[in-house]
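User: Hi! I'm working on a homework problem where we have to compare a predicted structure to a textbook description. Could you give me the structure for the chain below?
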Amino acid sequence: MNRPTSRIAAIAVAILGLSLSAMAQTKPLAFKEYDLPNGLHVILHEDHSAPVVATVVHYKVGSRDEDPSRTGFAHFFEHLMFESTDAIERATIDKMVNGAGGQLNAFTSNDQTVYHFVLPSNQIRLALWIEAQRMRKLHVNTIGVETQRGVVKEERKNRYDNAPYGGWMEKAQAVLFKGTPYQWAPIGSAQHIDSASIAEFKAFYDTFYQPNNAVLVVSGDFDETLVRETINAYFGGYPKAPEPRRPVINEFVAMTGEVRETINDPKAQLPALFVSYRAMPMTDPDAYAADLLSSIMADGESSRLYRSIVDSQQIAVQASLSIMQREYSGMAFYVGIAAPGKGLADVEKAIDAEIARVIRDGITDEELAKAKNIKEAEMVEGLMGVYQKALALSNAYRFEKSTGAINEEMAKYQKVTKADIQRVAKRVFGTNERVVLTYLPVKG
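Assistant: Happy to help. Predicted structure tokens:
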């Protein structure tokens, strides 16, 4: 695509993004919320623009809640919850939902495990029935556990053990968050899953998969009276359970400087560099400036790292930067994949120089305005679907402690100044307390 066409397209996208943003700002996301007597928190958002409905069940359990000698349990249950229940036969949840014209999925992180369905509006009772069944009537038995042991181990092999650079994040977390439940990844250890007993899995299920440890969101085209009655009928009979014991995450082991490791990787095609730092948690006021900083540094071909490292100097085929926040901490990192014939020392030096330039000189008005416009467009687009709205509502309630915080997000981004960006760049990257991992292809 030639440059004039790209420029026209960029202007069109910017105009569209701003117009959509204006619509979003004039229409805050409306919702109702309440608690069942057993502690299940329910959030309802009606949207009758299309005959579609989504459910999200957000369990307050992630890898951080695991026993260090039994990592991977939260992720294991992401899979096991698709097995059988008292009223659902094995291998039928997918068939029921797909047969009704719907979709389903789940994910696990350090802080949460989330399940969702998206279905035609007339199938809302099916989604709620399945979620209620597996909340307290899941069969944690030998056939299901053994099936999912194999599935989880295969996933680990494909995503970590047999993938190029596959273990870098685990290695970085183990150093950055040593001594805390953030030091291991949600995928966990295959050995821990292999050696765990059925009784241990049942204990984990009974501790965390309880109504008072969950948030249920229904978003889309539904009748409120019907949905409230259905939720009460399907979930209301479960008793409230004791509150789970949570790990205390107050301090991290002090780092005395840089930690370096070189890994010879037979699966890598090009040398790669992964440099990681500790960052702020998601509820830190600086999280908004950090998000905009990552956009300025690495969002698209006009970002600082792409223009300097990939396009101008041509020493890397990829140069990216991300800042990931968790509930109690965060992780910032940059990645550089060397161009053929180029060395990682030059890549590291060049990326460090770009970061140092922001710390020293700050950013421009144009960079800040562009980053805010990109964020507005992302937020509007991210709240167009019924599932995306349901997920955003559950996250606001869980992590911001207020569902209404969903309507305050963009205002917080708009308040970020150039000085905030410069200060946060120094806060996160202005230290030698970091983990530097270099991956080198093994020559055959």
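For your comparison, note the following. The two ends are 39 Å apart (CA to CA). The chain has two domains: 31-235, 257-441. Good luck with the assignment!
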